[in-house]
Specification:
Length: about 900
């Protein structure tokens, strides 16, 4: 039996402040890939307000301790205790200077946490608890201090030596070595420490802040990528400007570094003035990166930059507060993207993603509040809930308080807490106090898990011309919380007449009001609103702009949905209505498929699509969103027992039916969006490509599609069009697909980021055969199980984005995937845990699949040496 990790859980209620103040940390690294020596000197001062025994507790992991001294007295093993990841020194003087020397082994570090090697250069990743793999230190976010870091290395192997803050010295040393000293004047927690050492090429620009500070902007990449940094640099400058304009926040140092690496467990990291990025979120050239990549770069560059204030200047008291910085910073990056691109399209994409990734998490074995109460492995809590749901909760403050009220709250938050490590309660208090309002009820969003459901019913009385709308909210029990309470829901509402005119909203007892959106607050289990002087039975336009993260149930007729699709003033509601209609159509056909009946194309959906496609004035990007059918995973989430094959068959049937019936319109839009002009990266050009390529995907369901795709491929001058064409050929099983893939491979063989796309196209192909392709691709010379991007592209995509492949009835997908989790676990537990979560929703499938998945989970769980990361995921899933 597997060792029980449950007793290793950490509880939020047990938080205790660290009893020492760390005045200063001096680090000296003698750098080499095989073995790096780390000297640390830290000055501890006893916090006067804390009583008890004066012991110093430090964290460390996989460190070779060479020496340890306290106030210049060398400590022997009798003077301290090392237990697990902590080192305790008893009876330390009130002023204690601790000096340590440890050895670490970056080249052998496959977990990519702490100091490790990527290609020929060394770099660090410390969030959340990677600093303890570098040296002994109180590795917790509420211990903040100033860092002085000296890096010494061979000058030829490591010409560039970077750490946080400003460069304050450098020099030559014997034997072809050199050193550089960095000082970061802002106290920071250890998770924001970074160093980079190696041979890297530099792209430099600068930004002058509003108050006149000239900031050097330096992007370091491997030499061959120098021509792919323009978009990242432009995004960084835009982000710096935007944060001044919108949030009144300025950059606070003279230098800002970005380093791109191919070996990174996550997207990027906001280390103070030394951001480290997955190269996927830095490097772009029109022929190597898609429009989605360009937008991703803008968003992630923004996100990391915005952390400088929301995360770095004000940080988290403990890791339970992670959403304090992440939810807020995601909200800020969403707003940045909305202001740079199309607000409506950004909102739709955000909501689609939330429903696809966060709603299932909130309903599965890992359900947790955005501020969890317990965790075993903190790395498992960098979740869609903490990030995306966290951001919607910040957005609700914004909806409730308005832009100026929200900004007043932000201002007070920084006035009170600049330089501190604080909690979500502090953020809420700043918002409430700045607006002279009480947000105590709103606070439950932080502690309650699960997605609220809102059941809406209505009644129109033609005689009294009264319209009553009743909202009943409830949240289904989750594994962590059996009992739920009602939450504060900002409820943005509009009413349309049957012909689509926006009606005035006048609540009973009020003076006549204007037509348009009205913001109501629904905070009770049941709430009834009575509107008067309503001229005809209205179509309710509910939760406009997705004003609260809830599932809305209302028995819309096809006619009402058609009215919303055609006329609603809110782009999100128009899109959502089209999604609902498509969902109804697909799930109905899925039922017929299961019964062995012939499937039929839904007439209302056909009509609605005809209307959407005929619209020649709308933003093409919005049209593209509107005609994108709900994902198979989203549809699966709407069924009591998931019918994997039925969903795929029904969705395909509808896609093909629409394509055949509306071929003329798809053709027309395709042609009118297909620019002869050269590639541009403007939002308008991206919007046109998005509509063009969704039209292509439909046209590929008709005879004409194949030659269209080939023509597009031949003519393409950009990766967006190229990928859409090849992906389409692969998807329809065209005999031309193999050649297209082979040519793509030979063109891009030496390019890791582009090769990721090549793996993805193959891993995502529907059907039970794909597992064999994926298995074969693992032997491809470019694939490496040690590289997170490759693992995500091939293994992650297969398990998470290919339902008919992963859930093949014979269990081959499950077995393959469990083998990968087992293979990854000893190398990179964080990645292994992310992969293992593909099994999380196993209980929602039919008995045969359930049995197969459960067996694989048990096989993983019963391994002798399983990481805590994977154990937590797998044991939760099995419970
Ligand atoms: C945009 O949050 C949104 C989310 C932690 C690592 C980046 O800045 C971060 C880091 C994880 C998951 C998602 C994101 C990040 C991390 C991320 C990046 C860009 N503090 Br894990
Ligand atoms: Zn972040």
């Amino acid at each position: 039996m597997q060792e029980c990790k449950a007793d290793k859980a950490i509880y939020r209620k047990n938080y205790l402040a660290y009893p020492w103040h760390v005045k200063q940390l001096d680090l000296r690294f003698v750098i080499a890939a095989e073995a790096t020596v780390v000297f640390a000197e830290m000055a501890f001062e006893w916090s006067e307000d804390v009583g008890g025994a004066r012991e110093i507790v430090l964290n460390g992991s996989d460190l070779e301790l060479v020496s340890l001294s306290l106030n210049d007295r060398v400590l022997t093993e009798n003077d301290y205790v090392i237990e697990g990841e902590s080192l305790t020194i008893h009876d330390a003087p009130r002023t204690s200077v601790l000096k340590t020397e440890v050895h670490i082994h970056p080249a052998a570090n496959t977990a990519l946490e702490g100091l490790y090697l990527s290609g020929d250069f060394l770099l660090t990743q410390c969030e959340a608890q990677g600093f303890r793999k570098i040296t002994w230190f109180p590795d917790r976010p509420d211990v903040m201090t100033t860092y002085r870091v000296t890096l010494e290395a061979d000058k030829t192997l490591f010409p560039v030596l970077l750490s946080n803050g400003n460069e304050v010295g450098s020099g030559e040393a014997d034997g072809g070595r050199h050193w550089v000293c960095w000082h970061d004047p802002f106290p920071k927690p250890s998770y924001l420490f970074a160093l980079v050492a190696g041979e890297l090429a530099l792209v430099e620009d600068h930004f002058t802040t509003r108050s006149g500070r000239d900031v050097a902007l330096r992007i370091y990449v491997e030499e061959e990528n120098l021509d792919r940094c323009d978009h990242a640099m432009e995004s960084l400058i835009n982000a710096m400007k935007w944060d001044e304009d919108r949030f009144d926040l300025e950059y606070d140092l003279d230098v800002y570094h970005i380093i791109a690496t191919n070996d990174f467990n996550m997207g990027a990291m906001e280390n103070k003035s030394l951001n480290i990025f997955n190269s996927k979120y830095v490097l772009a050239r029109p022929d190597t990166a898609t429009d989605v990549d360009y937008q991703g770069i803008e968003g992630v560059i923004g996100h990391e930059y915005f952390h400088n204030w929301t995360g770095n200047r004000v940080t988290c008291q403990d890791w339970f507060q992670l959403t304090l910085k992440e939810g807020l910073t995601v909200f800020r990056d969403e707003e940045f993207s909305a202001d740079m691109q199309s607000r409506a399209v950004k909102r739709i994409q955000t909501v689609r993603d939330l429903r696809l990734r966060q709603f299932p998490e909130d309903d599965g074995p890992m359900a947790h509040a955005i501020r969890p109460d317990r965790y075993v492995e903190i790395n498992n809590f960098y979740t869609a809930t903490v990030y995306q749901k966290g951001a919607t909760i910040i957005r609700m403050y914004h909806t409730l308080l308005g832009e100026s009220g929200f900004q007043k709250g932000m201002k007070l938050y920084f006035e009170r807490h600049d330089g501190q490590a604080v909690s979500c309660d502090d953020f809420l208090a700043a918002m409430a106090d700045a607006n002279d309002t009480n947000l105590d009820d709103f606070a439950h969003w932080y502690s309650q898990s699960g997605t609220p459901q809102v059941h809406v019913t209505d009644h129109y009385d033609a005689e009294s011309r009264e319209y009553t709308l009743t909202l009943a909210q409830s949240t289904p029990a989750t594994h962590d919380q059996p009992h739920k309470r009602p939450l504060v829901l900002p409820f943005a509402l509009g009413l349309l007449s049957a012909d689509g005119t926006e009606l005035p909203l006048q609540l009973k007892g009020e003076a006549p009001g204007a037509a348009g959106t009205r913001l109501l607050i629904a905070d009770k289990e049941q709430q009834t609103y009575t509107f008067v002087s309503v001229s005809s039975k209205p179509v309710p336009s509910l939760f406009r702009d997705f004003s609260a993260p809830v599932k809305v149930f209302y028995a819309y007729s096809a006619q009402q949905l058609a009215t919303l699709i055609e006329h609603d003033s809110d782009a999100f509601v128009r899109w959502d209505a089209a999604q609902r209609m498509a969902e109804n159509a697909i799930l109905t056909q899925c039922g017929r498929y299961a019964e062995g009946q012939d499937m039929q194309l839904d007439v209302a959906l056909l009509q609605a699509f005809r209307g959407i496609l005929s619209d020649e004035k709308a933003d093409p990007a919005l049209l593209a969103e509107a005609i994108t059918l709900p994902d198979e995973d989203y549809l699966a989430d709407q069924m009591d027992v998931v019918d994997v094959d039925g969903i795929h068959a029904a969705r395909q049937f509808i896609r093909q039916g629409l394509a055949v019936e509306l071929k003329t319109l798809f053709d027309k839009q395709y042609l009118s969006m297909n620019d002869a002009a050269a590639y541009e990266k403007t939002p308008a050009a991206m919007a046109r490509r998005s509509l063009k390529n969704i039209c292509l995907s439909y046209l590929l369901e008709t005879e004409a599609g194949e030659s269209l795709a080939v023509a597009q491929l031949d003519a393409s001058d950009n990766m967006t069009d190229t990928l859409a064409a090849i992906r389409g050929l692969v998807f329809i099983n065209s005999p031309l697909a193999a050649k297209a893939l082979a040519e793509f491979e030979s063109s891009w063989y030496g390019d890791p980021l582009v090769m990721d796309k090549w793996f993805i196209m193959q891993a995502i192909k529907p059907g039970s055969e794909t597992v064999n392709t994926v298995r074969a691709l693992m032997s491809h010379s470019v694939f490496s199980i040690r590289n997170p991007n490759k693992v995500r592209a091939l293994i992650g995509v297969f398990a998470m984005l290919n339902p008919t492949g992963f859930h093949a009835a014979d269990g081959s997908g499950y077995k393959f995937h469990a083998d990968r989790v087992i293979e990854l676990d000893p190398l990179n537990p964080q990645m292994a845990a992310r992969m293992a979560s593909a099994f999380n929703r196993w209980k929602r499938y039919d008995d045969d699949r359930k049995t197969l998945m459960q067996a694989e989970l048990q096989r993983i769980s019963s391994l002798d040496k399983l990481s805590g990361d994977v154990a937590e995921i797998v044991n939760n899933a099995l419970r």
